[in-house]
Design brief:
With 205 residues, the protein is α/β, with parallel strands linked by helices. The protein has ten helices and seven strands. Helices cover 49% and strands 18% of the residues. Helix 8 links the parallel strand 4 and strand 5. 40% of the residues are buried.
Length: 205
């Protein structure tokens, strides 16, 4: 079953940085996130990164898709913009300087969300990322991933999961759509890693 871990628990899809959202928006495949799990979590700082005015200026069509998808998900109850301390600070900065950027702020917010998430729930989270900073944060905090109900994988690995589940005909076709809409798309080698009862695919640069 889609969005279900091997022990039968439901899986929430969490986007750890703006890259997965912008990439899937460019390929017109944002729907895969909700179709895979039924519930999508976007940490507040990631939301602010993804809706940065610069993205709309550079990729107006993709930005329009992203805005429509967020609106649909929020009204439909299957998309959650999760509040975090990092996101609140970033929002305050954006009110003063709308064009402001903070390095790795999305990853930090996701890290904070996951720390809170795994303490009070028996659900599983599948975190999709493209920036290695998130994994470094876990390592620096000495958090043991096998003890968490969390799977971490890149956008490319997520597309491989979608292909195996029959949600898309070809991962490569979606990647080509993404590449057609931007200067580059991370091409990594898939490497398997076990995360508490299921296999995830971290990507090696």
């Amino acid at each position: 079953m889609l969005g279900t871990a091997r022990d039968g628990m439901k899986v929430d899809v969490v986007t750890a940085d703006a890259s997965p959202l912008s990439s899937l928006a460019k390929a017109a495949h944002l729907d895969l996130l909700q179709r895979f799990s039924g519930h999508v979590v976007v940490p507040d700082a990631v939301y602010l990164e993804a809706t940065h005015p610069g993205f709309e200026r550079t990729y107006p069509a993709a930005a329009g898709r992203l805005a429509a998808w967020i609106d649909k998900g929020s009204k439909g109850g299957w998309l959650e913009i999760a509040e975090t301390p990092a996101g609140r600070d970033f929002a305050a900065l954006r009110r003063v300087s709308p064009e402001a950027r903070v390095k790795n702020i999305g990853e930090l917010a996701t890290f904070q969300y996951i720390q809170h998430y795994v303490e009070g729930t028996d659900r599983h989270a599948m975190v999709i990322y493209d920036n290695g900073s998130l994994m470094r944060m876990f390592k620096q905090a000495k958090l043991e991933m096998p003890d968490m109900n969390v799977t971490i994988e890149t956008t490319l690995a997520f597309l491989e999961d979608c292909e195996r589940c029959g949600l898309i005909a070809s991962r490569d076709e979606v990647v080509e759509c993404i590449k057609a809409g931007e200067r580059s798309f991370p091409q990594h080698k898939a490497v398997s890693a076990v995360r508490k009862g299921r296999v995830s695919h971290d990507l090696e640069r």
